Amino acid sequence: MIVDCALYVKGQTRHARTDITAALREARAGGGFVWIGLFEPTAAEFAEISEDFTLPTLAVDDAVRAHQRPKLERYGDVTFAVVKPGRYVDHEEVVEISELAIFLGEHFVITVRHGVSDVPAAVRAELNTSPALLAHGPAAVLYRALDLAVDGYLDVVEAIGIDIDEIEEQVFGDAGGEHSERIYKLKSEVLEFRRAVVPLAVPLQRLVAGEVPWVGAAAQPYFRDVHDHLLRAADAIEAYDHLLTNVLAANLAQVTVEQSRVTVRQNEDMRKISSWAAIALVPTAIAGIYGMNFEYMPELSMRYGYFVVIAVIAAICVGLHALFRRNDWL
Amino acid sequence: MIVDCALYVKGQTRHARTDITAALREARAGGGFVWIGLFEPTAAEFAEISEDFTLPTLAVDDAVRAHQRPKLERYGDVTFAVVKPGRYVDHEEVVEISELAIFLGEHFVITVRHGVSDVPAAVRAELNTSPALLAHGPAAVLYRALDLAVDGYLDVVEAIGIDIDEIEEQVFGDAGGEHSERIYKLKSEVLEFRRAVVPLAVPLQRLVAGEVPWVGAAAQPYFRDVHDHLLRAADAIEAYDHLLTNVLAANLAQVTVEQSRVTVRQNEDMRKISSWAAIALVPTAIAGIYGMNFEYMPELSMRYGYFVVIAVIAAICVGLHALFRRNDWL
Amino acid sequence: MIVDCALYVKGQTRHARTDITAALREARAGGGFVWIGLFEPTAAEFAEISEDFTLPTLAVDDAVRAHQRPKLERYGDVTFAVVKPGRYVDHEEVVEISELAIFLGEHFVITVRHGVSDVPAAVRAELNTSPALLAHGPAAVLYRALDLAVDGYLDVVEAIGIDIDEIEEQVFGDAGGEHSERIYKLKSEVLEFRRAVVPLAVPLQRLVAGEVPWVGAAAQPYFRDVHDHLLRAADAIEAYDHLLTNVLAANLAQVTVEQSRVTVRQNEDMRKISSWAAIALVPTAIAGIYGMNFEYMPELSMRYGYFVVIAVIAAICVGLHALFRRNDWL
Amino acid sequence: MIVDCALYVKGQTRHARTDITAALREARAGGGFVWIGLFEPTAAEFAEISEDFTLPTLAVDDAVRAHQRPKLERYGDVTFAVVKPGRYVDHEEVVEISELAIFLGEHFVITVRHGVSDVPAAVRAELNTSPALLAHGPAAVLYRALDLAVDGYLDVVEAIGIDIDEIEEQVFGDAGGEHSERIYKLKSEVLEFRRAVVPLAVPLQRLVAGEVPWVGAAAQPYFRDVHDHLLRAADAIEAYDHLLTNVLAANLAQVTVEQSRVTVRQNEDMRKISSWAAIALVPTAIAGIYGMNFEYMPELSMRYGYFVVIAVIAAICVGLHALFRRNDWL
Amino acid sequence: MIVDCALYVKGQTRHARTDITAALREARAGGGFVWIGLFEPTAAEFAEISEDFTLPTLAVDDAVRAHQRPKLERYGDVTFAVVKPGRYVDHEEVVEISELAIFLGEHFVITVRHGVSDVPAAVRAELNTSPALLAHGPAAVLYRALDLAVDGYLDVVEAIGIDIDEIEEQVFGDAGGEHSERIYKLKSEVLEFRRAVVPLAVPLQRLVAGEVPWVGAAAQPYFRDVHDHLLRAADAIEAYDHLLTNVLAANLAQVTVEQSRVTVRQNEDMRKISSWAAIALVPTAIAGIYGMNFEYMPELSMRYGYFVVIAVIAAICVGLHALFRRNDWL
Question: From the centroid of its chain, how far is CA E259?
Fold first, then answer.
């Protein structure tokens, strides 16, 4: 699906949805360029454009099928780049990765977007308001797209940082509990995010080194800046990866201790209950003996036998209680 | 065992099972090439072919014995490549790795397959239907075989991804349970798969760099594309490796907590039962005392002695019950 | 906010808060340099200076927004460096990272500080007292800032080392206990600190290699010395990272054992109590039998029946006690 | 100790134990070479040979003292190589590493063996039966020794793989149990084995690159083949290392669950026993009350008092039993 | 503190404590060199020497302050090296790292030792007895110091290996127990030791490559030999690091199982005791019923009531016992 088609000539923007070949001719004539934006095109939809601009078949395939690595490839005069902008859906703790394929020729830019990303729209808006940017030709689109994508990475990095802080508070906070699911899922997002971010370093290095046609030496500091920001994002991702591994281990330690504390308290309760029960068995046993019906039991006829027995029982119970106390059982 | 022998001359395919040397001569004359496909040949079976095409001995050895690393070696004019296609047997969660050795000369291709793989058959089918492909000569076979093998890797990667999702659901789902065996076995498959995938990067880089004879500059973008897909597979394998390690740790945490929860509940039950038992001991003990047969027990002859004792017992039991409740034991 | 503006000409220091352009002109004329120190300037505050010195826009952006990686970039004649001094707040076990952006021209140095750091003030003090240093021009500022920052890293490294020693004493000391929170938090500080320290190696290597303008060959040994100290800090950070991972595991082992010891002792108590209770049940049961009111119970009328029963009870109890002792239950 | 001394001239093998210098002279004259094989020589035993062949002192030291890393060093015309053949002692699950130092000159090979290895004997046997091999001169000995050693590594790798399969069956099999000792010990063997295998890659790369004198370009494919096999062994070792770490973790998970299952079942037993005991306390307590000897207890003289009480006891017991059943305690 | 000052001219050793400048002059004149050995000098003590020999200030700083990384730096004609000899204090399981800074000029060597190390004394002794060594000039001191230090590393490595064997015996031996403290502490020593050993590889590579003045090509094989031994030590350290991590995990597994075994046995005891107690409750309960004082209890007046009840009690007890046996509770 063609989302937009614009013609930029002499610092002017003209929307030219109708005739792509005419627009391309005009761009060539006027030293400007055409930008065609597509969204998840089918192979058929893309075929005509691909022919008009004589795009390299392999790159067209990649752009249509998506699920590519971030990369930058030269096919003669045409440069093909793939960047994967990301955004953080905070309430789900999910990094949503979209994909943006960019064909760069002397007089055209073709962008193919897969998934949700506001990068192309933002670049378009900038172009429309900045003639200075337009002066750099198609490379400006590449630069802005990469810059915005990498800035987006830094936003994601910050958002993940906040979630890690939250996890730390949960793990080490008073509530305790087991958080391995949340930690694992965030880690799995970080790993997927890394696959979008880290491989972009090589294309950026090549842009900084000036190996890409239609990207002049003047543009190199800009790409170096983007590269630098990318490294920052990559550093943070690496650190988060480590942190999450460690917080998982720490959580396991915490949970183990927490649970053990519960068990120990329960065991103490049991010991206390059992100790009391053991004390209660004494009067039962002794009284049982004097409840026997033997005809000849001399104690029974003693005047103070009863009182003596009661006293003995009480003494034993008190003694046991003191003993258990000393053993820390009560 | 020779599976197939085909002669490709001037865009035409001719099956030529009978006379290999004649076919080779014809290929040389007509600027075409012969493709001989073998399946797990014995050294003896391979010896004759090896002689006819003057294949390098070391490479022949490797091709017959199999269990090679993915590689690409030059022996004078002959290029020897080993690629290990993989496929995922989903119901066993096993990656089945086969092996395909390819000898590439100016006028011949010899493929030696070990294990089950549909890559050679698929390449043959493509050649038969695409004269454009045939125009590239033997290199086309190498390209298609590598491309299909790497595409197969991406399929395996996707299938493993689905299994990891399943494992995540099991581990973090309501059913809980211990899944270390499944996780470990999948991880062990991933490790083996990696050994088939990752070393292929070096041969592909060499093909991209144009260091291989009979592979023209025009073919380089194609190999670059394959290389790129390989890197994608390798990235995913790396990520899966990490994920599985983490899910194993998370599972251990989950299981620990789950089991602890069971133990805690069991302990609570025991505490409750013991508490009731302790309460039941009170009437037994007191009643035991008044069941003694002493002749002189003043309480026995009291008019309301019995009722007083019953009341005392009841009071103590109720009191204990309240106390245990307050301690959260009941 | 401009913190300070100084003019260094012919080994002399002059404070020149009023007119920056005049100071710059004078510096150029006299072969000296101007140093302007800023603290967390807004984009607006920085705009004028940036114009006066024709600073590169991208670098100005980075300097204003902060949160950069340590780096060193050339923009024509201007060198832009970012260094992140750190200090250890011992009572919180936190590494506080500040940020210092440095613009280096032939006749000026502009430093932009974010966060708390005494590095710029210390450099200024050194400049004011050392004419020899001044002779090196703006590069002296860069050298001193890097040297002091790296020396600060070594202080932090030492302080962390002391905290790790403390943790080791806690973990392996008699008090025992679970310290995963402290270990994790220190580890997370180490990881953040690493992100400030390690990337500085590349800028320093470039300074040592003499790739930076206005940094003469004479300055290279100085930067090599700083580089060397940086590597020392990086080595230590790496080692601490490993140590903390290991001490976390060791702590988990210790805690597991400690808790288990508590449980085992509790279980022993329970076994002891239960054993005594079991013994106490014997007289109760036997006495209960002779407390039955059957009319015909021959033992009851025996002359020594009572004494025999008492003896039997005592014998059983003593026997049980001995048995339990032998089983190690008492 | 000199194990063997052979003279190979013009494709002929002659044993020449007696006079080494004469043999060397003859080898030089006839364009052949002398091979002297030693077994754990003392410094004194080796001194004479070392002098005759003017071997480099440092290398001689290394060869006598053994415990070297696999390496390849040039000392002028003499090449010194160390390779560490390994073999797997299956019943002990131990990798036995021996050491083979090889001095290579234009007209001589000196091999120094430490420990048990059949590599030198096998090389000798091959030389005696293959004149083609002899034609390559001393380099043939180096090639065959490296090839056989690396083939031996692949055998060890396979044997370790079988043991890992066994461990997996033990860990995940029905018998369960704790296998950390076996896993750890095998891992420790793998680590030691790696130290023998992996460093050999550098010497082999140098041989492939043709940096070694007396090793012609014709020999390079052979060394490349060995190098390739070495990489295969190294890949497998890496994978085994990972697998063993993971199986250790999985085993811990399994054991934890297994033990917990035992504890849970024991706790269930205890709950059951306690529940029955609690039920048994009811008749004791109630009967105790009616066993009291108060003179005035109205129920005692009721006609059906006894039966009512029995019925009440039975009702309570049945009720408790039903309650416990519902709580899943019985 | 100056420990020693020696003058080596024409293969002769002369002690020259008195006048350093005179000694240096003589060394220059005679083509020999002066060796000054210092032990933990203060900055003031070192200042004079530093001036006499015009040593580079930065290096002097490093030598005085110590705590450097192993390194090798060129300052014009002067080479500055730092090596950190280590020795293993077996009864404390501690690696004691000392530090040796070496200044190398055409006619002098200055060594600065921090901590306890017998390396300088050993080098001196060798020099005094070996004129051949003296002939190499100051480089001989560097070579011998590095060689002895690295040999010391190998001794430490061996001693650590023995301690690891001991730990393995403890962990997997019959005594069992928790050894995380010992394992952790040894690991922490290994990590510190690594920081002394591994960075030395770079200086040695530079010496092998001949980048260091006053170190001739003839010396390169010697340094290569040292380098090789260093790599051997580094390999072993790496392996030990892995082993200790694994033995910690294995120990945790062992301890978990061991403790669990104790708990299981305790639980079995409790079950046995409780089972017996439950049996004992039967006669108590039944006898209690027939001990009630109801006037109308038909069984009491039966002729064989008593015996029937005794028989019933016995039957129930025997039955319960059999049941518990079958349940494996007794």
Answer: 28
Q: Give A294's contacts in chain C (Cβ within 8 Å).
A: 290, 299-300, 302, 305-306, 309
Q: E45 and E189 in one domain?
A: yes
Total CB pairs under 8 A between chain D and E: 154
Check whether residue E252 and residue E266 sit in a common domain: no
CATH code, E238: 3.30.460.20
Q: Where are the alpha helices (DSSP H) in A130-179?
A: 131-134, 138-172
- Number of helices (H), then strands (E), belonging to chain B: the values are 10, 9
CATH number at residue B304: 1.20.58.340
Closest approach of chain D CAs to the CA of E283, in angstroms? 9
Report whether A192 contacts A97 (CB < 8 A).
Answer: yes
Both structure tokens of D25: 């002279």
Instruction: Count how many domains chain C has.
Output: 2
DSSP-based three-state secondary structure for C110: strand
Q: How many CB atoms lie within 10 A of CB A95?
A: 24
Q: Is the dihedral of CA B104, B109, B110, B114 positive or negative?
A: positive
In single-letter form, the type of residue at position C316 comes to I
Whether residue B69 is found in the same domain as residue B100: yes
SS3 string, A280-297, reads HHHHHHHHHHHCCCCCCC
Residue with tokens 């399994």: D254
- Domain boundary at A212, A232, A256, which? A256
Q: What residues in chain E have per-residue pLDDT under 50?
A: none
Interface test with chain B among A60, A191, A296, by most B beta carbons within 10 Å: A191
Please tell me which residue, B77 or A216, carries the higher pLDDT value. Answer: B77
Q: Are residues D26 and D103 in the same domain?
A: yes
Between CA C117 and CA A156 the distance in angstroms is: 28
The token pair at C59 is 């670098």
pLDDT above 90 covers a percentage of chain C that reads 56
Candidate from E191, E284, E302 with C-beta closest to C242: E191
**Cα E246 to Cα E262: distance, rounded to the nearest angstrom:** 24
Alpha-carbon distance E175 to E170, whole Å?
7
Task: List the D108-114 sheet strands across, edge first.
Answer: D12-15, D2-9, D33-39, D108-114, D99-104, D78-83, D71-75
pLDDT value at residue B253: 84
CB C78 within 8 A of CB C59: yes
Question: Do C39 and C136 have their domain in common?
Answer: yes
ipTM of the complex: 0.82
D108 shares a domain with D209: yes
Annotate B246-276 with DSSP letters as a single string: HHHHHHHHHHHHHHHHHHHHHHHHHHHHHHH
What is the model's pLDDT at position D178?
A: 85
pTM of the model: 0.86
C-alpha angle D199-D201-D204 in degrees, rounded to nearest 5: 130
Task: Tell me the pLDDT tens digit for each residue of D69-115.
Answer: 999 998 888 999 999 999 999 888 899 999 999 999 989 999 999 99
Tokens of C173: 């000391």
Last residue of a domain, one of C234, C256, C278: C256
pLDDT tens readout for residues C51-79 = 989 999 899 999 999 888 999 998 888 99
Strands D86-89 and D94-97: antiparallel
Chains that touch B (3 or more CB pairs under 8 A): A, D
Tokens representing E305 are 């009531």
Range of the domain at B310: 262-326
Packed helices A180-197 and A138-172: angle between N→C axes, nearest 10 degrees: 160
Task: Assess whether B39 and B11 both reside in one domain.
Answer: yes
Nearest in space to B152 (alpha carbons), one of B117, B127, B126, B125:
B117
Say if residue A167 is exposed, middle or buried (CB neighbours under 10 Å; 0-12, 13-18, 19+): buried
Burial of E304 (0-12, 13-18, 19+ CB in 10 A): exposed
Query: Chain E closest CA to C279's CA: distance in Å?
Result: 9
Q: Does one domain contain both E69 and E8? A: yes
